[in-house]
Design brief:
Oligomer: single chain
Number of strands: 6
Distance between the termini: 67 Å
Helix content: 10-25%
CATH architecture of the domain at 74-150: Ribosomal Protein L15, Chain: K, domain 2
Radius of gyration: 30 Å
Order of helices and strands: HEHEHEEEHE
CATH class of the domain at 74-150: Alpha Beta
Structural class: alpha/beta
Largest sheet: 3 strands, parallel
């Protein structure tokens, strides 16, 4: 098999319908649009219009809001960190921060920081520098002889004054 011989299966693709190409085509004259009226003409976009009836997006109440100041943390358990250390992907001797967790493949991307939770057990003596941690996670790490340093949150961007 060669790259230039690869084709779709028979019937997988349909040819485009050519409307308005004479009465013999079956879609000539009005092109399947019916006769007259707003929708028979070009340039019409009436999404959400329900024929004068109150549209559903106005009949239903508004609910909730999006908090623009909310923070989105990567949640990592102490058990997951211990697994990465046991697998040799993470160096338990040095300081572990968000960049080290990303390099080890524990997290995919650094969002607003890393928050440590207490799921699982930790045996290694860890030094963590993270944005947040649960009380039980801090207790587990300190019981194993490690420390958790909580980083200060990044300051909110201030608009430039003129």
């Amino acid at each position: 098999m060669k790259l230039n011989e690869i084709t779709d299966k028979e019937g997988a693709t349909h040819s485009r319908k050519r409307v308005g190409r004479g009465i013999g085509s079956g879609t000539g004259k009005t092109g399947g649009r019916g006769v007259k009226g707003q929708k028979s003409r070009g340039g019409v976009a009436i999404n959400g219009f329900e024929g004068g009836q109150m549209p559903i997006y106005r009949r239903l109440p508004k609910r909730g809001f999006k908090n623009i100041f909310s923070t989105d943390f990567n949640v990592v358990s102490v058990g997951r960190i211990q697994t990465a250390i046991d697998a040799g992907k993470l160096d338990g001797k040095g300081s572990i921060d968000a960049a080290a967790l990303k390099a080890a493949g524990v997290i995919r991307r650094i969002k607003d920081g890393v928050r440590i939770l207490a799921d699982g057990d930790v045996k290694a003596k860890l030094t963590l520098e993270v944005a947040g941690a649960s009380r039980t996670a801090i207790e587990k790490v300190e019981k194993a002889g490690g420390t958790i340093k909580l980083l200060a949150p990044a300051p909110a961007p201030v608009a430039a004054e003129e």
